[in-house]
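Thread: quick sanity check before group meeting

JM: Hey all, I'm pulling together slides for Thursday and realized we never actually wrote out the predicted structure for the chain we discussed last week. Dropping the sequence here so it's in one place. If anyone has concerns about the input, flag it before I start.
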Amino acid sequence: MSQGDELRRQVIATALAMNDAGINRGKSGNVSARWREEGFDGFLVTPSALPYAQTTPQDIAAVSLAGEARGPRPPSSEWRFHLDIYAQRDDAHAIVHAHAPFSTSLACLRRGIPAFHYMVAVAGGNDIRCAPYATFGTQALSDNVLGALADRSACLMANHGLVAIGQSLDAALALAVEVETLAEMYWRALAVGEPVLLPDEEMHVVLGKFANYGRR
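JM (edit): ok, ran it. Output follows.
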């Protein structure tokens, strides 16, 4: 099995795991991984409108950073923001986009996730922003997502869902799950009252701790 075939299988496995984790349902959302080989620089992404359980490695689309797609099926309708993230973020090696219920509920209110809990720092800053709304699959949406991801590894998307990037497919999926967990906790706290937010000074301390978390 070639490295490309193995990565295609991993992309499918991540999409299935995304649904199994409850952060996505049906055919919505999409998953991609950066892919380079001789004569190609781009990414592999789930195809458009195909249930993940029916997706085979041959169905996974390859899209170059020039926007040229290869494969028997069209790439996800959201291939534009995947392309732009890979083109502008060297730290992005995988992307998970999900229509997660709690994240999407907040996004429909045009609310990001503020520093109500120290784990918000897992996305790289003192909040998780909500990108302004634009029609799915458009360059405008891609531009909005890139803006919300500045100095961050995850964001919400107004009236749409969430995006998480990582050094690997496992890392991107884990971050997406963490963001959805935070969204649920914030949503539940809002049902009782307005949560007390941690000050920027404390979040700065937490971000410093996260920079070395797990290292010996």
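AS: nice. The first strand starts at residue 30 and ends at 37. The radius of gyration is 17 Å.
JM: adding both to the slides.
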